[in-house]
Design brief:
It contains twelve helices and 13 strands. The chain has 370 residues and is an alpha/beta fold. The chain has two domains: 118 residues, Aspartate Aminotransferase, domain 1 (Alpha-Beta Complex); 241 residues, Aspartate Aminotransferase, domain 2. α4 links the parallel β3 and β4.
Length: 370
């Protein structure tokens, strides 16, 4: 959808309209409904339809390159709902939780809804800072730690294999839950990231969140949580599940057919090819128009470029000026738990086509040069 003002909005972390596969979903839905029985419109299994979980486990095992079992999967209505549900089941108002600094900006409202106290742990190009985490753990025990380990939002960084192991070890030592938002893990463009944190699920301290929002379509509102038997049992044994059954029974079976028909895998390849090209285009445009005044690291996957501006520049103020030039971005302070990161900006390459990316970066370059 184009902005009627002509603004190129790099704030939007969504796929562009041409990547939303209506025909694919129609084909999968027709295939499923043509043989569905009336029982298919009932509440559904509380953990999620067993056929879907079996199919999803095979798909994830092949895509991740690691073993995934149907028993370890719990069906959700997407990552935001999953995180909210995890907070309901595993925290109480007043609990402390750790997050990364920076982190996904819309998570702050979800956490505030649950009355949680937030402590930010800085990240670098190898992921969460383990030394700082250990310092904070010496002061307090969090109920959980929320992390985006692969192609981090907003920084694009990927946590190293070594830090993943260290993080899991600390969770076991100090008794806190790791909630790993792994929604971007399959969107890799320059080689695969380390094994998912979900691969450590049997440690009993990991809940790995995944979603079809980034690999198929956000409107499906379908995702999953991967965890140990004990943690999955706690998710299933909740009032809302006992009352309403599966969070997304019908859609999960449509997507099951999309996977079985090979449609999901082909669409994922299309996304990777398209986003890889857009990364290259945005990176080249940044080099052409902003190389002298901005620093960044090309992301290896996900949706985002994370720009570091001169310390004297407030990205929130800059955004106001940028909008007048019909271009926009997310200021860094939106991703901070303490009002920091004011000279950073996040740009998404997922929502716009090649020409719009080039033009939008050129407009930003003209603004900063001015």
């Amino acid at each position: 959808m184009k902005d009627p003002s002509g603004t190129i909005n790099f704030e939007i972390g969504q796929p562009s309209a041409d990547l939303l596969p209506v025909d694919l979903i129609r084909l999968a839905a027709d295939n499923y409904l043509s043989t569905a029985e009336s029982i298919e419109l009932n509440y559904g299994d509380k953990q999620g339809d067993p056929r879907f979980r079996e199919t999803l486990a095979v798909f994830l095992g092949r895509a991740y390159g690691e073993k995934v079992t149907a028993q370890s999967l719990f069906v959700t209505a997407g990552n935001s709902q999953a995180l909210d549900f995890v907070c309901t089941q595993f925290t109480r108002p007043g609990d402390t939780i750790f997050i990364e600094e920076p982190t996904y900006y819309l998570v702050f409202q979800i956490l505030a809804d649950h009355g949680l106290n937030v402590v930010g742990i800085p990240v670098d190009e190898s992921g969460i800072n383990i030394d700082r985490l250990e310092t904070e753990l010496a002061k307090r025990r969090p109920a959980l730690l929320y992390t985006i380990p692969s192609f981090h939002n907003p920084s694009g960084f990927t946590m190293s294999a070594e830090r993943r192991k260290q993080l899991v070890a600390l969770s076991q030592q100090h008794g806190f839950l790791i909630v790993a938002d792994e929604v971007y893990h399959l969107l890799s463009y320059y080689g695969d990231p380390p094994c998912t944190l979900g691969s450590f699920a049997e440690s009993g301290t990991i809940l790995s969140l995944g979603s079809f929002s980034k690999i198929l379509a956000p409107g499906l509102r379908l995702g999953w949580i991967q965890g140990s038997a004990g943690l999955v049992e706690r998710l299933v044994d909740s009032g809302v599940i006992n009352s309403g059954g599966s969070f997304n029974h019908l859609t999960s079976n449509i997507v099951r057919r999309a996977i079985e028909m090979g449609l999901q895998e082909r669409h994922l390849e299309r996304l990777r090819d398209t986003y890889h090209r857009r990364v290259e285009i945005m990176d080249a445009a940044l080099h052409r128009h902003l190389e002298d005044c901005v620093s960044w690291r090309r992301p290896d996957g996900g949706y985002y470029f994370w720009l570091e501006l001169a310390e004297s520049i407030d990205a929130t103020v800059l955004r106001g000026r940028a909008v007048k030039r019909r271009v926009s971005f997310q200021p860094g302070e939106n991703f901070s738990s303490c009002g920091g990161l004011r000279n950073y900006a996040r740009l998404s390459f997922a929502y716009h086509d090649d020409a719009a990316i080039r033009e939008g970066v050129a407009r930003l370059g003209a603004l900063l040069q001015a």
